[in-house]
Amino acid sequence: MEMRVDFHTHIIPENFTELTKHLTGERYPTLQRTCACGANIMIADKVFREVTDQVWSPEKRMKDMSKENVDIQVLSPIPVTFSYNAPVAEAEQLARIQNDFIADIVSQYSSKFIGLGTVPMQDVTVAIREMDRCINELGLKGIEIGTNVNGNNLDDPSLLEFFEMAEKWDVPLFIHPWETLGKERMPRHNLMYTIGMPSETALAGASLILGGVMEKYPNLKICFAHGGGALPYLLPRLDQGWKVWPHLRLLEEPPSFYAKKFYFDSLVNDPINVNYLIQNFGYERIIMGSDYPFLLREVPPGKVIDDTLSLTDEQSAAILGLNALRFLNMKVKV
Q1: 108-139: b or e for each residue (b if 16 or more CB lie within 10 Å)?
Q2: 26 inside domain
Q3: Which residues form the signal peptide (predicted)?
């Protein structure tokens, strides 16, 4: 049986509120216990999300992994804790708390978990410093960042030095939607999750391409959550814009050329979408991810890959586990 590595999972310390009690203000999330095995993530005294002990307990996670045939989980923070709108010194403290926690879990259960860190992107000097600590002191294997920084797209000139150093140090980046565009129009039907996040991810990817970030840093390793959201399906339209608006043409090649440098998780809910990603980017660029432990997650992780009957054994093994390990610069036994 193939090794299964779930690249897209989120975790938060059980004592998160106690660890962050010195950080005051409505911008910071808190974890309010509701029972022995559940809690609410609160923001400004309002329920942001209901969670279970799966989100903090490595023991519970490992039980689920055994039941669902997952060998390794890649742990990353919950995006609501990014706190890019906080004072940078406090945001750095919050990042360090989470990074230390994830590193500790990985240290205790090194055969089961791999860790990604978070950094305060509102100040690239501090972000680079914490990225350095994550990789070289804590042993984390990559960094998770949001799709925008306080409303600035990822091609904002203030962020370029961060991407430059990530490429120089060969640090993989996992880009996850947060603070979605148009969220004021999406309070009903949970549209922020189903429409807002894919649209936000497309904007982030298009910004990195059209802003020349991927052309300037061609070896930058980036994986987008949720199959890249709407980006893969909008590339023909972006290419058309590149063709017809020469005054906006800052790139040597069309946008789809640079998009082939990206990686995408497999959380696309339908084998048709899996095949589309493979046809356009190659199976080597698709990484299994489930969004554990939230409600929209795939159960069991990798189901959409198993249901994509056209895959060869080699392709399936790569997507289910080997691609994640390679992306994270880890040794792969074949």
Answers
A1: eeeebbbbbbbbbbbbbebbbebbebbbeebe
A2: no
A3: none
